Amino acid sequence: MTIPAQSAGARLTKDAAPGETLLKVTGLQKHFPIRKGLLQRQVGAVRAVDGIDFEVKSGETLGVVGESGCGKSTMGRLITRLLEPTAGQVEFEGKDITHLGVGGMRPLRRDVQMIFQDPYSSLNPRHTIGTIIGAPFKLQNVTPEGGVKKEVQRLLSVVGLNPEHYNRYPHEFSGGQRQRIGIARALALNPKLVVADEPVSALDVSIQAQVVNLLDDLQQELGLTYVIIAHDLSVVRHVSDRIAVMYLGKIVELADRESLYKAPMHPYTKALMSAVPIPDPRRRNAKSERILLKGDVPSPISPPSGCRFHTRCWKATQICTTVEPPLVELKPGQQVACHHPENFEDQAPQDTVLLTAAKEAAALVADEVLAESAETSAAVAAEVETASAEAEAETDAETASAEAEAETDAEAATDAETASTEGETPSKEK
Ligand SMILES: Nc1ncnc2c1ncn2[C@@H]1O[C@H](COP(=O)(O)OP(=O)(O)OP(=O)(O)O)[C@@H](O)[C@H]1O
């Protein structure tokens, strides 16, 4: 098969119009069985991904963040179908691909590509970069127009590498350059969706920005759709349109970037955000508002009951230990799974007694943050009250005017009736 070579500025996406749903994930789960004994009987399971729902629209970048062990990589491997889900559904361009076999997946392998975290181990040291970047053509049995070599050299220049270095080996390149090679390989087959798993975390900070900018430029030029996985918000904050925050196999908040940064609702999101330094000279002398999360993410073999974050949350109350909060849209474009969200009305106001663990966690939370938290909650509550009072007043006014209108109408009708009756009477009398 021959595929036309793409010019560097051409759009590579084929069918999906921008804004249309490209990927849809429903109730996705991956439980890795734990086996023991001679008979290898299953004694438990690692609930790496435990029921997540989200959509990715064509042309957008969805950032996925969370601490190590939250299930982000597993999620990435599930949507690229490198792993078989335990339950749930993955749809790509409206087609259910959850259980497609190797043959069924072959055409999809071109459309969905993955960039891996480690640019050192993800490239075969015994192959030249020409062979590495050209491998997808061989695997898919396709010949690009103009031949593999020419196309590989074009891809090298697209990612900012010298096309003359076609015959060099991976060890001759720096970490950032190797990640560019990985990106060129991912772009070889004109994918629609690129899942990048921690694409820059193995790189020096100075190189990270270059690779992130490259990904951003390629998206503009080639109309790519990205799912970018990262363990903190500093990488995804500039490139994502929407951000999903994962904790212990679940999505705890999913919002557009603007809303998430302006007013994060899940305490976990707030904690992740407070860990990102803000390079704002006006705030250089301001006291830093750090929320230090105590301990590690609990084991996904037996996650905490109720809200999984309750063991580390400074707002946790009784309800958080028993009732799992559903992921619901509390503000337009902002979904959150929390009983006591930040920057919004409390979802369980009757439950006010903090758990002991929450009090201990609070000790680690800077006073400024707690004060700010209380202030925003009070402000939101006041806003909600004002809004509902206004709404009530509006309703009252509407009711009054409707009643007045109805009365006027009734009066008019009575008048008309009377008039017509009066009018009729004389005629009858005539
Ligand atoms: N093949 C596997 N078998 C058993 N458990 C696994 C397997 N792969 C991942 N896990 C477990 O699933 C959980 C989620 O892992 P995953 O790598 O998806 O998390 P992550 O958020 O991507 O973390 P990291 O950033 O460290 O990669 C972890 O507890 C991990 O140990």
Structure description:
GO terms for molecular function: ATP binding; ATP hydrolysis activity. Residues 404-414 have a biased composition (Acidic residues). Helix content is 39%, strand content 20%. The protein has twelve helices and 14 strands. The strands form three sheets. An eight-stranded mixed sheet has the order 7-9-10-4-11-12-14-13, sandwiched between helices. The protein has a four-stranded antiparallel sheet with strand order 3-2-5-6. The chain is globular, with a radius of gyration of 29 Å. The protein is of the alpha/beta class and 430 residues long. The protein has a domain at 2-33 and 44-240: P-loop containing nucleotide triphosphate hydrolases (Rossmann fold). Mean pLDDT is 82; it is low at 1-14 and 402-430. Helix 3 (129-140) packs across helix 4, helix 3 packs parallel to helix 5 and helix 5 (175-187) packs parallel to helix 6. The site of adenosine-5'-triphosphate has 13 residues, from strand 3 and helix 1.
Can you summarize this structure?
This protein is α/β, with parallel strands linked by helices. The chain is 39% helix and 20% strand.
